[in-house]
Amino acid sequence: IPSLLRHVESYYISAQLATSALLTVHFQDLELVVEALSTPSANDPINYQRLEHIGDTVLKFLTVTYLFASHQNWHEGYLSEAKDVIVANNWLAQAAIQSKVDRYILSTPFAARKWTPAYIKSSPGSKPLLKRLLSTKVLADVVEALIGAAYVDGGLQRAAECVQVVLPELNH
Questions:
Q1: pLDDT of amino acid 117
Q2: Chain centre distance of CA 43
Q3: What was the pLDDT predicted at 78?
Q4: Of 22, 103, 108, 133, whose CB count within 10 A is highest?
Q5: How far apart are CA 38 and CA 128, in angstroms?
Q6: What is the pTM of this model?
Q7: How buried is residue 69: exposed, middle or buried, by Cβ count under 10 Å (0-12/13-18/19+)?
């Protein structure tokens, strides 16, 4: 039962993100959101690495397009430098925190004997839950994976909508 509930929990958490912070993205395939939120450290059958790869490329394309259109007087060096800042892990990690995406990341490995539902804070007499720490790289990778999931789910337009939510400073 715990493994089945873990699976349901992953979809529930992903649905919560898709219907709150990412509501305007209009994800159709919730499985892509589950994949984008699942870190390799969770040891689930799927993780964000595949979607992060395409999301990284799509983010760079959308960023370059935005910078080219909005800064027509800048030469290549300025455009390239601005792109590098926007797609840097530090910038994307901050975007994950500001858009509250970090709260939904699935990073805890499944252990059937120690498993408790995410919505149970703690049982009487147990230690309080520790605040989890996620690396800048993981936060950035999840942002890229969500952009990749949006791209796979609905093409470049949906990916641009996702970028608009997590990086509102880019007006696509």
A1: 63
A2: 17
A3: 96
A4: 22
A5: 24
A6: 0.87
A7: exposed
